[in-house]
Amino acid sequence: xxxxxxxxxxxxxxxxxxxxxxxxxxxxxxxxxxxxxxxxxxxxxxxxxxxxxxxxxxxxxxxxxxxxxxxxxxxxxxxxxxxxxxxxxxxxxxxxxxxxxxxxxxxxxxxxxxxxxxx
Length: 119
Fold this sequence. Notes:
The chain has 119 residues and is an all-alpha fold. The protein has one domain. The chain is 95% helix and 0% strand. It has two helices and no strands. It starts with a helix and ends with a helix.
C-alpha cells in the first residue's frame, strides 16, 4: 500500500506541475483549456484514490488493533469446543456401557425363563 501511495503522490505531482505550466502561460486556447480540464479531473481522481487508500489503511490498522481480542475469543471457543468433545465422548462411552448392561440383563432374564420352563 505504501507503493500505491507513492505512485498516487507521483501522479498528482506530475499532473499538478503540468497544470501549473498551463496556468502560467495564461493562454485561453481551446486545446490548452481541454488539457487544463483533463489535468484537473486527473488530480481529483488521484485525490479520491488517495482518500480511499487512506480509509483502507485505517480499516486495516483498526482490524490489527482488535487482533488480540479476537484471538482471546477464538481461544475461548476452542477450549469450549474441546470440553464439549470430551463430554460427548464420555456420554458415548456411558451409553455403550448402558446398552451392554441392558443386553446382559435381557440375556440373563431369558436364561432364567428358559430354566424355569424346563423345570
